[in-house]
Design brief:
Number of helices: 5
Helix content: over 70%
Distance between the termini: 70 Å
Largest sheet: none
Order of helices and strands: HHHHH
Radius of gyration: 20 Å
Oligomer: single chain
Number of domains: 1
Shape: elongated
Strand content: under 5%
Length: 93
C-alpha cells in the first residue's frame, strides 16, 4: 500500500502571476527561482490549483522552445565575444 504525500503550501503564490509566467513560456525552474522555492513546490502548487500546464496553457511547449533557443543564441554571442577579447589580449602581448 502506497501513501500519497499531502501537499501543504507554506508560501502563497499569486495564481494570475503563475499563469502569466506559464503563458510567456517560462520554465518551472525559472518560476521557482523568481519565488525562491523548489521546482517541485511550483509543480505541486499548480496541481493544487488544478492547473495542468500541458492541457491548460495553449502553445506553452512552443514558447518554452523559443525562449530556450533565444537564450542559447545570447550565450553563444557572449562566449564568442569573450573569446575574441581574450584572443586580442593574447596577441597584444
Amino acid at each position: 500500500m502506497t501513501t500519497q504525500r499531502k501537499f501543504r503550501p507554506r508560501k502563497a503564490l499569486p495564481k494570475d502571476e503563475l499563469i502569466q509566467y506559464l503563458e510567456e513560456g517560462l520554465t518551472l525552474t525559472e518560476i521557482a527561482n523568481k519565488y525562491g522555492v523548489a521546482v517541485s513546490y511550483i509543480s505541486e502548487y499548480l496541481k493544487m490549483l488544478g492547473i495542468d500546464i500541458r492541457k491548460d496553457i495553449k502553445g506553452r511547449s512552443y514558447k518554452v522552445k523559443q525562449r530556450k533557443e533565444k537564450l542559447g543564441e545570447q550565450r553563444k554571442t557572449f562566449i564568442n565575444e569573450f573569446y575574441k577579447q581574450i584572443e586580442g589580449e593574447l596577441h597584444a602581448r
